[in-house]
Known about the structure:
Elements: H1 2-22, H2 24-27, H3 30-54, H4 60-77, H5 79-95, H6 109-124, E1 130-132, E2 135-138, E3 147-148, H7 154-167, H8 174-214, H9 231-249, H10 254-274, H11 279-303, H12 308-333, H13 336-349, H14 375-382, H15 385-404, H16 411-432, H17 441-461, H18 465-491, H19 500-512, E4 518-520, H20 526-531, E5 536-537, H21 548-557, H22 561-574, H23 577-586, H24 589-600, H25 604-612, H26 617-628, E6 634-639, H27 642-653, H28 657-665, H29 671-680, H30 685-697, H31 702-707, E7 713-723, E8 726-729, E9 734-736, E10 741-746, E11 751-753, E12 757-762, E13 765-770, E14 779-785, E15 788-794, H32 796-799, H33 802-807, E16 817-825, E17 829-836
Parallel strand pairs: 4-5, 4-6, 12-14
Antiparallel strand pairs: 1-2, 2-3, 6-17, 7-8, 7-15, 8-9, 9-10, 10-11, 12-13, 14-15, 16-17
Amino acid sequence: MKKYILLAFTLAAVLGLNIYFRLFPAYFPQFKAQARDIIGQRIRWNIKQDIEKKFPELDDLAKQSMVKTNLYQYYKFKKAEIDRAIKTEYVLLKERFQDERGQTYLMELDCWHWARYVENVVKTGHPGDQTVGGKQFDLFMLAPQGSYMLWDQFLFYLSAFLYKGFSLFKKVELFDFLFYLPLLFAAVFIAVLYMFSFRLGRHIAAVISCLFVGLSPIFLPRSCAGWFDKDILNLLFPLLVVWTYVLSLFAYSLKRRLLWVFFSSFWVGIFCFTWTHWWFIFLIIVGYEAYSLANIFVAYLSHKEKDIDSLKRHLVSLVAFIYFSFLWILVLTGTTPLIELYRQIKLALILNKPLMSSIWPNVYSTVQELKKASYPQITRAVGGQLLYFLSLISMLVIFLMSILRGMQRDFRHQVIVIMILWFMMMFYAASKGIRFTVFLLVPLGISMGWIVNQAYEYFRSKNKRWPVTATLVIVAAFLIINLISNGRRTAQQIYPMLNDTFYQVFTKMRDTTPRDAIVNSWWDLGDWLKVIARRRVIFDGQSQDTPQAYWMSNVLITDNEEEAVGILRMLNNGGNRAFEAISRELKDPFKSVLLLKKIILLPPEKVKSSLSEFLPPAVTEEVAGLIINKPGSAYFFVEYTMPGKISPISFLGNWDFVKVYVAQNIGKKTKQDIMDYLLTLGVDSQRVERLFQEAALITGENLDFWISGQSRYFIDEIKGSERNSVVLFDNGCIYDPREQTVYVYSPSERKYKLPRSLFFMEGDNLKEITYPDNEVSFSALIIKAPDGYRSILLDRKLAKSIFARLYFLNGKGLRHFKPFIEAQEGNNGHIRLFEIDWN
Length: 839
């Protein structure tokens, strides 16, 4: 009974800590301390100002003494008033991230996307907006065509089932339920991890493992209240696969072994039904069996040991695991995951490489969470260099100890081998994308708890109770305090991406725009627009890796409004169908995309005649219709986070297909073949010669940056005020409207410098004045607004871009973009929606 009580107590403790920190987004306790500081500073400032007015002649030291005395008296006699002020300030701080009912918004972009699918399941019984050909179809993605959904739908059906069950007892809003549902998933995962670690190292290992994994800086934000996503399940199901598979290795009969393998394969099927990258744990188990068979083979070659029983056991388990896994996958999801397996493994290898076998740029190479992770980034994500180093050493020590003790046939040895394989595979994945660091936590956390218990067991076996107690208390206390401290720091930094301003704009869009309208924006707004505004989008977070990203980035960075509207007309009529139709006919993607880019720039009356030179009449009519025809109601959205994203956006938009062809074929084809092909595409012979020489000199990753370039904003909008006919900006810039000169202050050199050029509005025209004697490479954009002047330092190419004209100048001077909704977040945070005029 004492053992069960201790088990229940320790499990409840780790669950309590994990749930407590995951509840921070529900009520934001960190804002209470912030509100207390704000009110305290406000009270102190008011008292100080009051004393300054009443006793201006007093010495500063006397004033400071009076401030302290008055502060003491104020806090002593007006405690209730202060508490009310703090409470009011606290409510104001957290209300920015909550709706009118005080419910915090869902945390991240994907959360809203998945929640819409759950909503569909609750209403219609299936996650898609339609069922087409037996498959689920999303009408809001990749407008106007829509998109077939992938097979990873378990989360939607499970959540809808749980919601309906919960609703039998208490009626709640669906999105409120989904906000708290991750807490249930987290509790289940922590409980499973606890029991698995307990099997390896009793309570010590279980507690440390659960705190290590559950409170890590990368996992806690991805499993807190409001993070309705697949991250928790993506750790839970692989852990269940490993646990049940290892149990099969020690079954005393063939029937029982096959039963455990069947159960392990079931979790593979469920995992496949949950996440498109299910195959990583499948490959780990196959890799483990390959390691085991290699050991048996080496033992035979070295010592002539014929371990037929082990050979049969591992072969049977391997074959059964593969067979049953594929069986469950076919039953739950069909053949598509198996067909996609090769493509996904190939994609994982080039996840953040801009240049792929495709002609299109790899959008994933510009996504922050898929950036290559450095060693310091990995260690910080895990919990710090010390914890990472200790857990890694723990894993290696456990493995070596099991080898030296001859425990290769022990349960624990099989586990540590699988954990090492898991760590190695996911360390490689983390090096390709920082988000995959979360998968390192399971092997590292289990090893950390395990080694502490191993040390305890060693000392206890030597009957050294006092050293054991002292060592255990010090080590355990250090680890637990460190892990809890990590959890608290991380929890205090968790906020939703969505705020009131965005939510109100999306709600207004829902109420004021036509229901069949399409919203054009960068991909990361797509999920909010689909769910809150209930409008179709050109592309979103789930379709960001499509050619639509290239076309939309072109719209944002071009300075030609007709080109931008031509691309938007094509996208709103058929997405990337125009390219697909041309490519099907020409069977040459490079020739197809260059032809399409050329056609988009032509006047409507010349489109058909130009296309007819390359395409048959039917295809000409199809493509011309997509480029010329007037689309339905459409809008364009820009907002205040986009200036910071313009660098990767410009990288995609500046993608040079001619350079792509050279880069992909140099070394595979002769120079003459490459040149002849490009000349047939109309590329200038001198440019072809130059590109070939450049490509021959540039190798490796530098080739990616040769293909495209980036432009950026150096300093965001800075407010300025006019004094004595000169405008002084807060960053030290000086602008003279009469002389049309601007100087930029360099803090490092402590002097003013002349930029490359000056941009300013003159009526509806954006003018540029160049400075031949410029001392810096960037330009300055000066805006005269009703509330004063604004300055932006930026690359010259961006000044006249459609994005700059829309975001900074509110569409002034543009003919096809009509201001529709405008909102402000902070001093310079613009949120702007424009109606697209196709005429």
